[in-house]
Amino acid sequence: MEGAPQSLSNGHPLVVLETLADQDPREIEAKLRELCPAAEYTLMGMMERNAFYKPFKTRS
């Protein structure tokens, strides 16, 4: 994620990340918001250990 802030800022893509068993997906959400504050990424949900994040705001 840390290598992708330009891609996150330019396209505001849906992000799907595999999480570790003891990892809190809200920590990842906070990191996404730090990397791309304009998109306001939010956790949509989980499937198995995959966390889905969507941008609340899209590029205009």
Question: What's the β-strand tally?
Answer: 3
State the end-to-end distance. Answer: 23 Å
Q: Strand-and-helix sequence, N→C? A: HEHEE
Strand content: 25-35%
Trace the largest sheet across and list its strands.
1-3-2
Overall average pLDDT:
85
Global shape: globular
The main sheet comes to: 3 strands, antiparallel
Low-pLDDT stretches: none
| Oligomeric assembly | single chain
Number of separate helices: 2
Global Rg: 11 Å
Structural commentary:
The mean pLDDT is 85. Strand 2 (41-47) and strand 3 (50-55) form a beta hairpin. A three-stranded antiparallel beta sheet has the order 1-3-2, with helices on one face. The chain has two helices and three strands. The chain is α+β, with helices and mostly antiparallel strands and 60 residues long. The chain is globular. The longest helix is centred in the middle third of the chain and has 11 residues, at 25-35.
Secondary-structure topology with pairs:
Elements: H1 5-11, E1 15-18, H2 25-35, E2 41-47, E3 50-55
Antiparallel strand pairs: 1-3, 2-3
Features:
alpha+beta, 28% strand, 2 helices, 3-stranded antiparallel beta sheet, 3 strands, 60 residues
TL;DR of this structure?
The chain is α+β, with helices and mostly antiparallel strands and 60 residues long. The protein has helices at 5-11, 25-35; strands at residues 15-18, 41-47, 50-55. It is globular.
